[in-house]
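User: Okay, second chain of the day. Same drill as before: sequence in, structure tokens out.
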Amino acid sequence: MIRVISYNLRKHRAVTELAALAETPNLDALCLQEVSAAELPAEIGNLHLADSTKNNRLGLAIYYRRERYEQTASNSFELKKSLHDRVFSPTSERLLGSRLVDRDSGHELVLASFHAAPLTALNSLRRNQIKAAHELLQTLGSGSPILMVGDYNYPLFKDGLSERVKKTGYDLSLSDRMTYTNYKFFRGHFDFVTSQGFTIEGVETLARGSSDHLPILVTAAYGSANTHHSTLSVEPLAN
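Assistant: Same drill. Structure tokens below.
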């Protein structure tokens, strides 16, 4: 079993909440978006900084429980750029992955923090980014189970996205409550998980902090089936 929190810090402003989140029972990792990497501590509670992006103005980071896991590889990746990325560069590294070995079970896995292009881009670009991210993580893990969490910026047409990722061998899991409610017209599940080789036991939306996103807690077990099914809000059929 692995327990991971994903949180978009809203331009780093929610960084002061991480110490409390790190105290979540049996927490194994934090996957963060919109961080200022230069201002991150090496340790948060009993979690150690695995890696962070280096070139983004606001980037990604992964922390993991070193007493349980050994990190054997890490890499950040550029994905296809949106207009926002080109205007507000540098915002090129939208994927960060770490290969970990579970000291308890011997399992190897790939854990990733992902941040898709903002809502100014088309869903088609975000689908391209998600597909590319999955393929890049395969090269990092060499067949290991993959857990990719983060801000997918995909509030609409998630049924279609779920079918697309399923065709490539991944499952898409949503949390029990919405993770974003600030926009009048774009509310819902922005932060979720895609996985391969894991059984997703649950995805819980945690309490709101100072970010415009709510953190999510993912509980997953090694396995091949996705058993967690959240209820989707009613949405248009397709885009």
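Helices lie at 18-21, 83-87, 123-141, 158-167.

User: Thanks, on to the next one.
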